Amino acid sequence: MLNYPIANIGGIDSSVSAESIHYVDTINVTNYNYEGQPLTRQFWNANVTSLRFNGQDIPLFGSLQEGLVIGLLDTGASDVMCRPGAVVAAINGTKHSNGHDIFIECDKPQIMEFQIEENWYPINPIDLITPGMTADYNGTTFCRASIGSWSRTGGDCIIGLPFFRNVYTVFDYVNSDFQPQPRVGLASTTNIEEALKEFSSKWKTRML
């Protein structure tokens, strides 16, 4: 099943159970525009507790704040950018790189799961294939994986569109003073077992 983001402004979709939405406060991050570089509210983000790829635990390291791995929640990012070296090492099947993009065997599903606080959020394997982007290696067509690298400020990881296709997200704040602290609500919309069953019959539609 292909999942696509749905936007509701000013309220929560009535079809989404309130009990299924789990909220976390956003994290203040270093603001380099001010003297002393204080921690301020700048981004929608969350502390990433754990990351798994194809059942393997991916080590996470927080470089911005001690004890935290800050995932910047970016609806405009086309990829998931988090520990790409370790993720690529855990890819099922053959993979290739052109020095920037990662290409994987199109018909082999890859499973990425984020844990935020105590809750896990799996990504449908189809959403880890970039639509319409392929490369040929030794006569075999490979698909571009929606996995990238990130080494700038704002977050230790960039959590982009593949993630948002698989969660219902609430960006919640009270007023323009951002008091109390803004928070993010997440509800998983993907049954990974069903997604794996459908993958073999669905992945080709991703490349149209």
Automatic annotation (TrEMBL):
Give the range the annotation lists for the signal sequence: none
Q: Name one Pfam family in it.
A: Asp
Q: Which named protein is this?
A: Peptidase A1 domain-containing protein
- What's the domain of life for this entry? Eukaryota
Q: Kindly list the residue ranges recorded as spanning the membrane.
A: none
Which organism's genome codes for this protein?
Answer: Rhizoctonia solani
Instruction: Cite a single GO MF annotation.
Output: aspartic-type endopeptidase activity
Q: Which family does it belong to?
A: Belongs to the peptidase A1 family.
Record-annotated Peptidase A1 domain positions: 1-187
Task: Show the InterPro entries listed in the entry.
Answer: Aspartic_peptidase_A1 (IPR001461), PEPTIDASE_A1 (IPR033121), Peptidase_aspartic_dom_sf (IPR021109)
Query: Can you supply a Gene Ontology BP term from the record?
Result: proteolysis
